[in-house]
Amino acid sequence: xxxxxxxxxxxxxxxxxxxxxxxxxxxxxxxxxxxxxxxxxxxxxxxxxxxxxxxxxxxxxxxxxxxxxxxxxxxxxxxxxxxxxxxxxxxxxxxxxxxxxxxxxxxxxxxxxxxxxxxxxxxxxxxxxxxxxxxxxxxxxxxxxxxxxxxxxxxxxxxxxxxxxxxxxxxxxxxxxxxxxxxxxxxxxxxxxxxxxxxxxxxxxxxxxxxxxxxxxxxxxxxxxxxxxxxxxxxxxxxxxxxxxxxxxxxxxxxxxxxxxxxxxxxxxxxxxxxxxxxxxxxxxxxxxxxxxxxxxxxxxxxxxxxxxxxxxxxxxxxxxxxxxxxxxxxxxxxxxxxxxxxxxxxxxxxxxxxxxxxxxxxxxxxxxxxxxxxxxxxxxxxxxxxxxxxxxxxxxxxxxxxxxxxxxxxxxxxxxxxxxxxxxxxxxxxxxxxxxxxxxxxxxxxxxxxxxxxxxxxxxxxxxxxxxxxxxxxxxxxx
Length: 480
Description:
Helices cover 43% and strands 8% of the residues. By secondary structure, it is α/β, with parallel strands linked by helices. Helix 14 packs parallel to helix 16 (376-389). The longest helix is centred in the first third of the chain and has 20 residues, at 24-43.
């Protein structure tokens, strides 16, 4: 029987990489779900799509994934598949969720190479929603099938704040020069969105990044003080894998740049230190290229050296170096490997630089959690390695929404996830306790962005449940 594919098992992607194909475990879980999901929906007299999208449907999905991988990863009781209150008890939480990586676009700027990649990405993640032209690489055809209204600030507000329990969100950026029609959202537009959205979502719930391309020359660094004063960003966003088209070698691949190179990275970090804010969020990983042909600048190998050279700067490593490559499986870190891939690259960089847990490096989970949560053994290795390398106070929550739709299913799955005791014993990973999850989902990001947790909790309690408080909507049955 054909079933709606649950969000957790969608072969979705990010703008930077193509979908990873289903593996044998995925197919085993899907086989179980083809029988279980229609059975549960029919017994409860619910429409199948509605059941699949609900918390009860998520319970059924996670239990199938857990069984397909041998069990012990998702702690979901059987009655959560049937009973709405049991599902709420399983997935509910009172954490203040802070999402440090969200995205939107200005549809009027949907031109050029970056926009073309975004169109292809949207059709990869959900052809039924975004359309699938006969030639998926024909960007003109793709443009005719995409509802630009689903990419706007208004839709972002609905997906993030009304349809999930996210309370604070950071609007992040794409690489690309504004003047060359490479950027699909400018620094000025990000700031304007913040001012507008604050009126609806409540002041203090939205923070922003400002994008800098240090490899474009001194003019980029000279303009940082003006950006700081005009837009008041909470942090700088950098893409070390991005390279201007005209500087890419003919018939070659972009090389990107690194924080520890004397021509680009070090002058940039010196400007960050002198100008402020002293926080840099950098894209590392998920570049969509096979491990043997990855863009060099996407590697986090420079994070350890840069953090050691600039202890005054906080580095937030977006995606934590994860590589969604079918040939790469996240396993236990081994220091003596000749070459490291995925998250191990970040772990190795920190270890070699002597950067200890609790230092000035944070690991971020946007897209990484989305990709590994359907492969729980890998998910346990990723989280276990990061907990050992940066510490439980230095992992922050991000989702890359709105690319994956409302992020609630990712929040719920994370709440139910655990690192099995056998992996704790064999690899020295700590248990993924409720307190550690609370830190990752929001408490760790709060001091980075100056969020007063007590004030935010008070504001959440007094907010209008019809629009601003998804937690009350959940209790009323919004997430049945």
